[in-house]
Write a structure and sequence with these properties.
This protein is 28% helix and 38% strand. The protein is built from 6 helices and 14 strands. The longest helix has 14 residues. The chain is elongated and about 60 Å long. The chain is α+β, with helices and mostly antiparallel strands.
């Protein structure tokens, strides 16, 4: 999987830049699909390329708009990278091995989601997300201290980690999810606020209702989360 995001900011001609980049991408014989998003003073492109990010087109467009700053971030085969383009040149770039996130998921009676937890190293600490059938929270852990983060205060890194857990394991009652609702009806299980995906319920049954891939070093994070959030009244 190759994913990339390019953000363009600066006190400049964003719409003129957009038209120039569109022109260059359309004429690229190896051009790939992308989506474009414009909000306020930020122009953003999202790619899922098969070959790579269109740096030639980006740098050429940048050269015509030196007042703008292009920030590219990508992930490919476990490697995360970033680059900054200004005035037609890559002025900063790096590639680092992506930190893998560990999860722990357990279920109870009638398929109840007892706990779904994802935890990932982030700099010198950890970030993550946890959910039960009734509630959820984001969190940060650093130097032995756990900080719970309200959903409205979650930043992009926290939301990205949470999305990976939810996409694989969870569906919410607020979703349409007709297939999941029908399977729960067939099982005779009630639909709660947060629910395990039916294929994951089958997976957990084969594993004694619990699965974990948490890094052993995340044990302190898990313990603090259980004490401060899951087990508090």
């Amino acid at each position: 999987m190759f994913t990339a995001v390019v953000r363009i900011t600066g006190a400049g001609r964003l719409m003129d830049f957009r038209e120039r980049l569109r022109w260059l991408l359309v004429r690229d014989p190896e051009g790939e699909d992308y989506t474009e998003h414009h909000e306020g003073d930020v122009l953003e492109y999202r790619f899922t390329p098969k070959k790579g990010i269109p740096f030639p087109a980006l740098t050429e467009a940048s050269g015509a708009f030196p007042e703008l700053r292009l920030e590219a971030e990508w992930e490919h085969d476990g490697i995360r990278g970033s680059a900054i383009i200004e005035n037609g040149r890559v002025v900063e770039g790096e590639a680092v091995e992506a930190q893998s996130a560990g999860v722990e998921v357990s279920s109870g009676d009638e398929g109840r989601l007892d706990l779904a937890l994802i935890c990932e190293r982030h700099g010198a600490g950890w970030i993550g997300y946890a959910a039960t059938a009734e509630r959820h929270t984001f969190f940060r852990f650093r130097e032995g201290a756990l900080s719970l983060v309200e959903p409205d205060d979650a930043d992009e890194a926290l939301e990205d980690v949470a999305f990976r857990l939810v996409e694989e394991w969870i569906w919410y009652d607020e979703e349409d999810a007709p297939t999941e609702r029908e399977r729960y009806r067939q099982y005779g299980y009630p639909v709660r606020g947060a629910n395990l995906r039916s294929e994951k319920l089958a997976f957990l049954r084969r594993r004694g209702a619990r699965f974990t891939s948490l890094d052993p070093d995340a044990g302190a994070v898990r313990t603090a989360l259980l004490a401060q959030w899951l087990n508090r009244s």
